[in-house]
């Protein structure tokens, strides 16, 4: 499972990535989780199973969906989950998004 | 009635964030922001080199040894600041191509740089050599080019001088064969933006034009056709730029870079520095937008940061050359990043300090613990979304007002010459106090900057405190209400089952 997180400069999502990797490991899930700024993320989105946008760039949802060309689901992380760096919830949301396609 | 007002406010805020997102999403503006983000490491590196050259080396070196050591920093300046314009033109071309989802993005780098250089002046105008620079004249034999004779310049100058006169300067025609450095450095950045965006736009338009596609028929490898498909649009694009350059030269004896600098760059810089008002307005809107959950750079990154970044890079170049910073460069990116973004947008590190010292809310303290480490490095999404600031009216007020206050006061202190103007681009992730010391070029000025940041910190804590208390009271009330509602619901359910 390959999860890509994107935010404005890739800074705060990189914080979240660390927590999510730990969470995935604890749950025994084999997952590659990366964080990138929006620009590069749009280039790489098709290499991943899901793209999760930080709430601060939720306006880019349309662009991201366009870049994903329907191949990769795109979701926006809920504000409260993002603020509290709720890795468990966000990981579950990502898994759900992959299942839904 | 109250509901109606709330609804109206909601729709106004929605409208505001919608319009902002539209501005921030505009493809040219976004490419501009992305371009600067890409080239930023180069500016930071230049800043470090300038600092070491001007602050560290002079501490223990003098004379020739100092000059030799400083050659290192000067070399880095030459490779970064002095070619900043050329790099930016290519990078902006690339970013625009990527944002337009144009496949051949690397070709746009070529177009951007080529178009820019086409618009550069071809000659160095009216060179006046300094007398002390000329030492000798070398003559080569007309029959045998290996034979040369050298004459001391002084001797000739004295021979031809009219009686009672001495030589003071040597004029020459325009020098050609030299590439003018006038606009390759920081003062050509406006040109790089405009030319890079225009050239790439034309190139992409032409590339997408079916009529310009070459069809070589079957049997020819598609890659061969592809090279032509890039070449014709490129040829047309650059020809247009070449014709414009020739016309400007023939009709008005000028070039586009000079025109951009005098007609666009100079007035814009003047506008930004005509008091802190424009910048304060932009950051008020930008921080308000963050309170609605959308990143501030959506607004500030396109309306203010490009020009503020250009101003600080120019300051770095001037500082490296040992020049004084003029007053129209006092407002620059560093005033924001160093003095009005302590702990991230809204200077939330001060709110965290208040929380640790005075808060009674466990939830707030928990989030503060999580947010303090990233906060030291000016990353504060955990505070904005977790504390939260978003849609939390009591905290939105200081979140917007404190940065405005700090921008205004820092600018005023610079104008009053209490604080030295910022001369080094420090990464925005640099922790407070270190950032202030470095931004003004260290030394005594650096210490003054630290003191100002300490005062800012105390001021920020003081302003945040009452708003934090109000916010906590409101949160407590909300929780009580929620609990009450739950109890009521339980009681109702119990009554029903009974």
Structural account:
The radius of gyration of chain A is 12 Å and the shape is globular. Helix content of chain A is 50%, strand content 19%. Chain A has 5 helices and 4 strands, in the order βαβαβαβαα. The relative contact order of chain A is 0.22. Chain A has one domain (2-100): Rossmann fold. Chain B has 498 residues and is mostly helical. Chain B has 3 domains: 99-125 and 179-260, no CATH class; 128-171, no CATH class; 273-483, no CATH class. Chain B contains 19 helices and 4 strands. A two-stranded antiparallel sheet of chain B has the order 1-4. In chain B, helix 5 crosses helix 7 (189-207). The two termini of chain B are 39 Å apart. The model of chain B has no long low-confidence stretch (mean pLDDT 84). The A-B interface holds A 7-9, 11-12, 15, 37, 39, 42-43, 54-60, 63, 66-67, 79-80, 82-85 and B 17, 21, 24-25, 34, 37, 95, 98-99, 101, 290, 293-295, 297-298, 367, 370, 374, 379, 381-388, 390, 429.
> Main sheet of chain B, how many strands, which sense, barrel?
2 strands, antiparallel
Broad shape of chain B: globular
Radius of gyration of chain A: 12 Å
> Total helix count of chain A?
5
Proportion in β-strands of chain A: 15-25%
CATH topology of chain A: Rossmann fold
> Biggest interface between protein chains, with counts per chain?
A-B, 26 and 30 residues
Global morphology of chain A = globular
The CATH class designation of chain A is Alpha Beta
Q: Which strand order spans the largest sheet of chain B, edge to edge or round the barrel?
A: 1-4
Order of helices and strands of chain A, N to C? EHEHEHEHH
The secondary-structure class of chain B comes to mainly alpha
Class by alpha and beta content of chain A = alpha/beta
Q: What is the CATH architecture descriptor of chain A?
A: 3-Layer(aba) Sandwich
């Amino acid at each position: 499972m390959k999860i890509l997180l994107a935010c404005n400069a890739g800074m705060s999502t990189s914080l979240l990535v660390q927590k999510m990797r730990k969470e995935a490991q604890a749950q025994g899930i084999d997952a590659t989780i990366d964080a990138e700024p929006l620009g590069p993320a749009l280039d790489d989105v098709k290499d991943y199973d899901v793209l999760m946008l930080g709430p601060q760039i939720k306006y880019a949802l349309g662009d991201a969906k366009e870049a994903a060309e329907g191949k990769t689901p795109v979701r926006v992380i809920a504000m409260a989950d993002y603020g509290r760096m709720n890795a468990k919830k966000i990981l579950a949301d990502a898994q759900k998004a992959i299942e839904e396609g | 009635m109250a509901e109606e007002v709330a609804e109206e406010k909601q729709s106004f805020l929605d409208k505001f964030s919608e319009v902002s997102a539209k501005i921030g999403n505009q493809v040219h503006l976004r490419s501009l922001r992305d371009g600067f983000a890409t080239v930023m490491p180069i500016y930071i590196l230049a800043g470090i080199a300038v600092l070491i050259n001007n602050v560290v080396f002079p501490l223990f070196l003098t004379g020739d040894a100092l000059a030799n050591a400083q050659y290192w920093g000067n070399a880095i300046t030459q490779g970064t600041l002095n070619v900043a314009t050329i790099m930016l033109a290519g990078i902006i071309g690339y970013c625009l191509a990527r944002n337009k989802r144009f496949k051949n993005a690397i070709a746009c780098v070529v177009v951007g740089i080529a178009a820019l250089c086409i618009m550069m002046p071809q000659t160095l105008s009216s060179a006046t050599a300094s007398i002390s620079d000329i030492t000798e004249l070398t003559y080569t034999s007309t029959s045998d080019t290996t034979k040369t004779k050298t004459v001391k310049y002084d001797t000739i100058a004295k021979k031809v001088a009219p009686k009672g006169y001495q030589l003071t300067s040597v004029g020459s025609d325009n020098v050609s064969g030299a590439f003018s450095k006038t606009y390759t450095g920081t003062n050509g950045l406006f040109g790089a933006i405009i030319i890079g965006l225009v050239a790439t736009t034309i190139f992409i338009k032409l590339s997408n034009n079916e009529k310009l596609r070459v069809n070589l028929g079957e049997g020819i490898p598609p890659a061969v056709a592809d090279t032509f498909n890039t070449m014709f649009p490129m040829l047309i694009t650059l020809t247009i730029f070449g014709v414009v350059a020739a016309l400007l030269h023939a009709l008005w004896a000028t070039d586009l870079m000079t025109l951009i600098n005098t007609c666009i760059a100079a007035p814009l810089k003047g506008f930004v520095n005509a008091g802190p008002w424009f910048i304060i307005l932009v950051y008020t809107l930008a921080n308000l937008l963050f309170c609605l959950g959308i990143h501030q750079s959506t607004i500030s990154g396109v309306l203010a940061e490009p020009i503020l970044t250009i101003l600080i890079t120019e300051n770095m170049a001037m500082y490296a050359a040992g020049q004084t910073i003029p007053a129209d460069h006092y407002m620059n990116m560093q005033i924001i990043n160093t003095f009005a973004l302590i702990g991230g947008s809204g200077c939330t590190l001060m709110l965290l300090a208040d929380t640790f010292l005075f808060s009674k809310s466990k939830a707030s303290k928990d989030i503060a613990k999580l947010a303090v480490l990233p906060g030291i490095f000016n990353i504060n999404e955990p505070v904005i979304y977790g504390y939260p600031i978003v849609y939390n009216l009591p905290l939105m007020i200081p979140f917007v007002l404190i940065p405005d206050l700090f921008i205004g006061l820092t600018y005023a202190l610079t104008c009053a010459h209490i604080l030295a103007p910022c001369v080094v681009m420090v990464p925005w992730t640099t922790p407070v106090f270190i950032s202030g010391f470095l931004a003004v070029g260290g030394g005594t000025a650096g210490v003054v900057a630290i003191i100002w940041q300490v005062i800012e910190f105390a001021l920020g804590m003081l302003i945040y405190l009452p708003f934090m208390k109000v916010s906590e009271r409101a949160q407590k009330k909300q929780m009580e209400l929620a609990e009450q509602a739950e109890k009521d619901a339980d009681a109702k359910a119990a009554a029903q089952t009974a």
